[in-house]
């Protein structure tokens, strides 16, 4: 039906054949673009499921206890929490940078646990299909601290950072869930800042929805001074796309240091589709749509060598993903659960 309609509009709406060609030129230029968008919408609607299908291989449901050699079943996000804090560390080929991050992280957590009897924790390192010795390095920490405090989730295949974070979250035991990048760019002691913000928003109740997220927005002027003009243009262009198509109330969506209540994590990660670099934006877009409180907290951040991101191509891909995220939700190809709106 729409094919005949397009022919109708492009030919000038069925006007007399003697009508001058230029009278139809505007329609012929405008409508093909609109038709392309219309067809893209149909394709996305037909080929996309409203809610994600979360695939988890059998081997990814278990972790290894090196003390016994036994396989043990991971916890489920749907279970009641048994610890205060779960730290999720997504890692892809991070054998070199991971030790420094884990040393800093575990030193901080151990000090807190010794001072505060009710402070219990776990660290879940999610190897995202790593090809190097990331798993072996992580297992050294399991042997040192035990499986009650450190566990390794070894993904069968590379899913992307978002996919790794999601499966780590789904395997956690904490009342509050923090995901932190494996490069250690954010000082782990700044967790205390996020914790204070979370207490103010939730009164330490994990059943309430909230996000406290690390932010580097206060470092933007310094970063701009150190970057090339090209990278600065890319940065501001990406921020404009985020503000236009997704999240308007958050200045820094990409900092890999975010704290969630268990309740919020249940609602967000079950409906999140994006598993690559742009997952942070979709996560915050969903939280914003659900009216979940979000507070940015300034953190100490240092750029660490060895990033997997190639500035131009990665930002180009994320820009494309941003527009597709907005478009899919706008046409109903992706949907949110209305019962989760606060």
Automatic annotation (TrEMBL):
Superkingdom to which the source organism belongs: Eukaryota
Domain Glycosyltransferase 2-like, first and last residues per copy: 86-198
Biological pathway: Protein modification; protein glycosylation
Molecular function as annotated in GO: dolichyl-phosphate beta-glucosyltransferase activity
Cited Gene3D superfamilies: Spore Coat Polysaccharide Biosynthesis Protein SpsA, Chain A (3.90.550.10)
Compartments where found: Endoplasmic reticulum membrane
E.C. no: 2.4.1.117
Keywords carried by this UniProt record: Endoplasmic reticulum, Glycosyltransferase, Membrane, Signal-anchor, Transferase, Transmembrane, Transmembrane helix
GO cellular component entries: endoplasmic reticulum membrane
One Pfam family cited in the UniProt record for this chain: Glycos_transf_2
EC top class named in words: transferase
InterPro entries linked to this entry: DPG_synthase, Glyco_trans_2-like, Nucleotide-diphossugar_trans
Protein name (record): Dolichyl-phosphate beta-glucosyltransferase
């Amino acid at each position: 039906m729409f094919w005949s309609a397009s022919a109708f509009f492009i030919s000038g709406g069925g006007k007399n054949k003697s009508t001058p060609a230029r009278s139809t030129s505007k329609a012929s230029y405008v409508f093909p673009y609109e038709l392309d968008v219309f067809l893209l919408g149909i394709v996305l609607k037909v080929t996309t499921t409203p809610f994600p299908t979360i695939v988890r291989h059998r081997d990814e449901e278990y972790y290894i206890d090196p003390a016994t050699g036994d396989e043990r079943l991971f916890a489920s996000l749907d279970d009641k929490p048994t610890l205060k804090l779960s730290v999720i560390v997504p890692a892809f080929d991070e054998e070199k940078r991971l030790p420094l991050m884990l040393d800093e992280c575990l030193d901080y957590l151990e000090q807190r646990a010794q001072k505060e009897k009710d402070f219990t924790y776990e660290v879940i390192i999610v190897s995202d299909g790593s090809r190097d010795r990331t798993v072996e390095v992580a297992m050294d920490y399991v042997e040192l601290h035990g499986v009650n405090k450190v566990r390794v989730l070894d993904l069968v295949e590379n899913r992307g950072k978002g996919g790794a974070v999601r499966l780590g979250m789904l395997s956690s035991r904490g009342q509050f869930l923090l995901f932190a990048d494996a490069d250690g760019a954010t000082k782990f002691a700044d967790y205390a800042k996020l914790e204070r913000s979370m207490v103010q928003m939730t009164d330490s109740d994990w059943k309430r929805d909230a996000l406290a997220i690390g932010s580097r927005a206060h470092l933007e002027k310094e970063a701009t001074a150190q970057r090339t003009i090209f990278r600065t243009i890319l940065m501001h262009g990406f921020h404009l796309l985020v503000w236009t198509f997704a999240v308007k109330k958050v200045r820094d969506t990409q900092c890999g240091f975010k704290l969630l209540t268990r309740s919020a994590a249940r609602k967000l990660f079950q409906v999140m589709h994006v598993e690559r670099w742009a997952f942070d934006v979709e996560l915050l877009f969903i939280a914003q749509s659900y009216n979940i409180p979000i507070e940015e907290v300034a953190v100490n951040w240092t750029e660490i060598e060895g990033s997997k991101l190639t500035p131009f191509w990665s930002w180009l891909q994320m820009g494309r993903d941003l527009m597709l995220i907005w478009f899919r939700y706008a046409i109903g190809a992706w949907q949110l659960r209305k019962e989760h709106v606060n």
